[in-house]
């Protein structure tokens, strides 16, 4: 395990991160685009290939590790965050990734996701959100819109969906972002930013399931309307969107006010300057509330990025401190400590 | 002992006993566990052999004075080799009416009953359900009763110290302890030393507890209530250095030892659960041994984080009790499929469901041996006594690493919280645990690493940890192709893999010492035990043999798979008796495995067997 330094940083191509396994996703699945993007990103990070450990749960997305040539771990439903925590605590030098889906991460594994995020374990978590259960053939998921008609909900789903970004923000995640399977460059930049983040990095990736929920993100991804529907969050930049960036948002009370800059050019100064370091998550949630109105765009990019001590570093520091203070453990001394007597 | 004056001391008989069983019983808040532990430490220092049985309610502080809130601590100390905390107590110290009500039935006829009359007011009697005081009338005629108002005596001892009534009364357990120390000719020094260190930050409490302890001792010395002083001489123990140890403590130290012997750091993923939490607490304090203790969000995260740590090259382990094992079951199957080392400790308690959280039972054997989906063999080992937990922990780690398998280690509430003297081993005498990480022994990197290529002898697969260049591979819970580990749904491959995993575990049966056997090889009756029944069975079989009965005993450390030596022992015996704290789980396994018509002696009362219960059964079969 050689430490990574710039001098010895290996140079890879995407091909170096492809495994010999036959890919078994349905033709046309959004997962292919994500896989290709992640392979390219990993190749460019300068981290030796053997120092990646990619852990997944169960579901279509969770087959991901098999298709990477790194160390990979396909586990059981929902538990990848907990397994990855063990991997990272055992060897903090590794770059540990979690690949999960909306069902795996937010339904059966919601508890674990909450806890890795609030602990700030240094993991890169990619959640492929297709708003449907694919591998079990088309039941509604915790991110499906209310009223979703599926095999298990022939009269429509009754429950309210959970929004992954809101969930992560509320859990106190130090890096929260959203991208889209087919927005190749944006996805690449977002995943790379997550990779660079020290701490729990959560990326929701809108992913089209062309078999059971085709077109779920069509209004956002259709080439004709893309620019009207995507609101890119850029740190230090005003919230603007649209083909000519002529639309924007300003903070008004506890919500965002839409401003048409063509009609009101004087209000450009009122536009909210995006601050990904706003610690409470309030701004992130405000922005994320916009799509509730279908007339609004969908925010993409980094909702929050904060530097905070990581769980794994804190745990290691306690061991180091104990050793510094008490010296390395001496078993013989420990056994014979306390009240002893000799016969 | 300045307050005592030998001139006015009553003269007493000194009687030497070879053993005493004493039980301290009071309210959960009365400090009975502490009193019992201190008396135990003193007995240990006096060179007695001993065994303890704490018995406390699941509630932290059930309403004071109620039957539900009674907490007890039984100690047996002796001048000879003993194996259990004793059957019926010879001495009962009852701090209130409820404690008397709950425990009196166990006191042997003619036993000494020390009652705190201060705990027998109208309110306490009502709560205990006594229509009138049992201290009046003939109710206690069968016992030697010493009735003392410990509340009042404690308060008087503390006069002038400025303590509130509540604070003062909290010291009364030390008065009782002082009385018992005098009664059994025990020195106060060990307890005094303990008080001074325990309350080092609170001088007033040091002073108060010392005063009360000494007052109790002096009171017993000067009062005429006691006619006899007892002595229990030291036991003839094998030479060496001893300490008193509880099971959970020994287990924790066993894991630290396994870490040293293997050169690997420990990762413990755990979720608090009675009666296993003390292992987490103990190991959390030993971070300087390189231990990572991770208090997970639930039982599932506890085991899966441990699996992750094992994958990354640590000794992954998880500690829990039956309900926790139920939650970990799917992950255990994953560990079987991955073939990674993992140790799961189940400190068993009464079940099913929440059951009896603070009481002991051995009813999770089926769960350990059989409780998973699919063909998922896991070796199961069991600890026999508090100090044996140390060696069981080392063995569990050895098997897990050598066979690349999860291992279940069964303990139970009885030995986890019970204690006994432990003849301490020399660390240098403990055998090393060999670890071989693939790609870290200078071997050439294979062009195509095969993560499921097996060792010929053990059938273990290689342990290639992330970070090792050239050994990148993928593992998972889906069935894998033999050798390559790639996903495979092939019919014959699945059967081959199931058989390989089974055969790997089966090989442990001949890679462990023969089962412990005591007695004549041709004995008519063999009493077979596993886990914490070891002491009660040993005591019973020795008594039966002393009576001339043709009995031997056999004890299983390796419970599953059965060690190769077990079959011949069982087949040769005319009768096989299996006492266990469940409704016959080992009994069923033995019958199905060997077609031996064994006899079951079940007990599921949340309490361990007494030797006499087993002896009685032996006699009925002889």
Structure description:
The complex is a heterodimer of chains A (343) and B (622). Chain A is an alpha/beta fold and 343 residues long. Chain A has a domain at 14-216 and 309-316: Thiamin diphosphate (ThDP)-binding fold, Pyr/PP domains (Rossmann fold). Chain A is 29% helix and 19% strand. In chain A, strands 2-1-3-4-6-5-11-7 form an eight-stranded mixed beta sheet, sandwiched between helices. In chain A, a hairpin with a 5-residue loop joins β8 (240-241) and β9. Chain A is globular. With 622 residues, chain B is an alpha/beta fold. Chain B has four domains: 6-231, Pyruvate-ferredoxin Oxidoreductase, domain 3 (3-Layer(aba) Sandwich); 243-429, Rossmann fold, CATH 3.40.50.970; 436-511, no CATH class; 516-621, Rossmann fold, CATH 3.40.50.920. Chain B is built from 20 helices and 23 strands. In chain B, the strands form five sheets. Chain B has a seven-stranded mixed beta sheet, sandwiched between helices. In chain B, strands 3-4-2-5-6-7 form a six-stranded mixed beta sheet, sandwiched between helices. Chain B has a five-stranded mixed beta sheet with strand order 18-20-19-22-23, sandwiched between helices. Chain B is globular. The N and C termini of chain B lie far apart (55 Å).
Properties at a glance:
heterodimer, A: 343 residues, Rossmann fold, eight-stranded mixed beta sheet, three-stranded antiparallel beta sheet, 12 strands, globular, B: alpha/beta, Pyruvate-ferredoxin Oxidoreductase, domain 3, six-stranded mixed beta sheet, 36% helix
The percent range for strand residues of chain A is 15-25%
Give the second-level CATH assignment, the architecture of the largest domain in chain B. Answer: 3-Layer(aba) Sandwich
Per the CATH scheme, the topology name of the largest domain in chain B is Pyruvate-ferredoxin Oxidoreductase, domain 3
As residue ranges, the low-confidence spans of chain B are 1-7
The helical percent of chain B reads 25-40%
**CATH homology-level superfamily of the domain at 14-216 and 309-316 in chain A:** Thiamin diphosphate (ThDP)-binding fold, Pyr/PP domains
CATH topology of the domain at 14-216 and 309-316 in chain A: Rossmann fold
Order of helices and strands of chain A: HEEHEHHEHEHEHHEEEEHEHHE
Sheet with most strands of chain B: 7 strands, mixed
As an assembly, this protein is heterodimer
Count of individual domains of chain B: 4
CATH superfamily membership of the largest domain in chain B, which one? Pyruvate-ferredoxin oxidoreductase, PFOR, domain III
Strand order of the largest sheet of chain B: 11-10-12-13-15-14-21
* Shape annotation of chain B: globular
Which value, in Å, is the CA radius of gyration of chain B?
Answer: 27 Å
CA distance, first residue to last residue of chain A: 50 Å
Tell me what portion of residues of chain B adopts beta-strand conformation: 15-25%
Mean pLDDT of chain B: 95
């Amino acid at each position: 395990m050689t430490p990574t330094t710039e001098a010895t940083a290996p140079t890879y191509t995407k091909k170096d991160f492809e495994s010999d396994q036959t890919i078994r996703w349905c033709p046309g699945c959004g997962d292919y685009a994500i896989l290709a993007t992640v392979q390219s990103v990993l190749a460019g990070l300068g981290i030796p290939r053997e120092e990646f450990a990619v852990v997944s749960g169960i579901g279509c997305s969770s087959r991901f590790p098999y298709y990477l040539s790194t160390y990979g771990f396909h586990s059981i439903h929902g538990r990848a965050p907990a397994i990855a925590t063990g991997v990272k605590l055992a060897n903090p030098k590794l770059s540990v990734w979690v690949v999960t889906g909306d069902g795996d991460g937010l339904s059966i594994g919601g508890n674990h996701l909450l806890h890795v995020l609030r602990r700030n374990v240094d993991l890169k978590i990619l959640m492929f959100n297709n708003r449907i259960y694919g591998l079990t053939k088309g039941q509604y998921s915790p991110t499906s819109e209310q009223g979703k008609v599926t095999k298990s909900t022939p009269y429509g789903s009754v429950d309210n969906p959970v929004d992954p970004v809101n969930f992560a923000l509320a859990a106190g995640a130090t890096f929260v972002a959203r991208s889209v399977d087919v927005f190749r460059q944006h996805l690449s930049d977002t995943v790379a930013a997550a990779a660079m983040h020290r701490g729990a990095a959560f990326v929701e990736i809108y992913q089209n399931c062309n078999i059971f929920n085709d077109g779920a993100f069509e209004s956002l991804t259709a080439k004709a309307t893309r620019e009207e529907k995507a609101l890119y969050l850029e740190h230090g930049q005003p919230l603007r969107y649209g083909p000519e960036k002529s639309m924007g948002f300003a903070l008004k009370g506890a919500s965002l006010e839409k401003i048409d800059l063509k009609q009101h050019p004087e209000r450009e100064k009122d536009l909210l300057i995006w601050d990904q370091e706003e610690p409470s998550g309030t701004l992130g949630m405000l922005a994320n509330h916009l799509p509730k109105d279908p007339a609004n765009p969908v925010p993409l990019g980094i909702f929050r990025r904060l530097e905070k001590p990581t769980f794994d570093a804190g745990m290691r520091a306690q061991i180091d401190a104990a050793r510094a203070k008490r010296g390395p453990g001496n078993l013989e001394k420990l056994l014979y400590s306390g009240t002893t007597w000799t016969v | 002992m300045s307050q005592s004056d030998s001139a006015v001391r009553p003269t007493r008989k000194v009687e030497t006993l070879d053993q005493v069983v004493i039980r301290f019983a009071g309210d959960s808040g009365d400090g009975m566990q502490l009193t019992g532990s201190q008396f135990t430490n003193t007995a240990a220092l006096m060179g007695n052999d001993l065994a303890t049985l704490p018995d406390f309610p699941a509630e932290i502080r059930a309403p004071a004075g109620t039957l539900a809130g009674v907490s007890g601590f039984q100690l047996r100390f002796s001048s000879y080799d003993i194996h259990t905390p004793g059957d019926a107590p010879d001495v009962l110290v009852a701090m209130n009416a409820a404690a008397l009500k709950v425990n009196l039935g166990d006191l042997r006829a003619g036993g000494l009953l020390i009652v705190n009359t201060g705990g027998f007011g109208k309110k306490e009697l009502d709560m205990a359900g006594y229509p009138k005081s049992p201290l009046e009338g003939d109710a206690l005629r069968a016992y030697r009763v010493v009735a003392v108002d410990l509340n009042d005596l404690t308060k008087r001892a503390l006069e002038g110290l400025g303590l509130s009534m509540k604070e003062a009364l909290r010291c009364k357990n030390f008065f009782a302890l002082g009385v018992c120390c005098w009664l059994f000719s025990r020195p106060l020094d060990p307890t005094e030393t303990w008080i001074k260190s325990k309350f080092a930050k609170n001088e007033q409490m040091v002073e108060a507890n010392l005063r009360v302890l000494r007052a109790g001792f002096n009171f017993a010395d000067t009062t005429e209530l006691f006619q006899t002083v007892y002595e229990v001489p030291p036991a003839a123990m094998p030479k060496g250095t001893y300490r008193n140890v509880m099971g959970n403590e020994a287990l924790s130290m066993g894991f630290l030892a396994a870490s040293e012997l293997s050169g690997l750091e420990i990762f413990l993923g755990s979720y608090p659960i009675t009666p296993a939490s003390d292992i987490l607490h103990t190991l959390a304090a030993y971070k300087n041994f390189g231990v990572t203790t991770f208090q997970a969000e639930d039982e599932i995260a506890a085991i899966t984080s441990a699996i992750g740590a094992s994958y990354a090259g640590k000794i992954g382990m998880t500690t829990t009790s039956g309900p926790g094992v139920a939650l970990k079951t799917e992950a255990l199957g994953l560990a079987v499929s991955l073939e990674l080392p993992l140790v799961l400790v189940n400190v068993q308690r009464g079940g099913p469901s929440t059951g009896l959280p603070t009481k002991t039972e051995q009813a999770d054997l089926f769960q350990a041996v059989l409780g998973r989906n699919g063909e998922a063999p896991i070796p199961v080992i069991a600890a026999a006594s508090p100090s044996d937990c140390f060696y069981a922990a080392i063995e569990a780690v050895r098997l897990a690493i050598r066979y690349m398998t999860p291992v279940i280690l069964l303990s139970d509430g009885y030995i986890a919280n019970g204690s006994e003297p432990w003849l301490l081993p020399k660390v240098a005498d403990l055998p090393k645990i060999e670890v071989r990480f693939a790609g870290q022994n200078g071997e050439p990197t294979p062009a195509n690493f095969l993560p499921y290529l097996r060792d010929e002898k053990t059938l273990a697969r290689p342990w290639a940890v992330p970070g090792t260049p050239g050994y990148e591979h993928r593992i998972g819970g889906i069935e894998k192709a033999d050798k390559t580990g790639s996903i495979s749904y092939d019919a014959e491959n699945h059967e081959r893999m199931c058989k390989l995993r089974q055969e790997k575990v089966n090989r442990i049966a001949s890679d462990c010492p023969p089962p412990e056997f005591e007695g004549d090889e041709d004995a008519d009756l063999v009493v077979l035990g596993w886990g914490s029944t070891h002491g009660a069975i040993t005591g019973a079989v020795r008594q039966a043999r002393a009576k001339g009965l043709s009995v031997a005993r056999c004890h299983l450390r390796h419970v599953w798979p059965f060690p190769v030596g077990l079959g011949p022992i069982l087949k040769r015996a005319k009768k096989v008796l299996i006492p266990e704290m469940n409704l016959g789980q080992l009994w069923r396994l033995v019958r199905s495995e060997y077609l031996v018509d064994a006899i079951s002696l079940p007990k599921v009362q949340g309490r361990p067997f007494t030797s006499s219960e087993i002896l009685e059964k032996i006699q009925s079969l002889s």
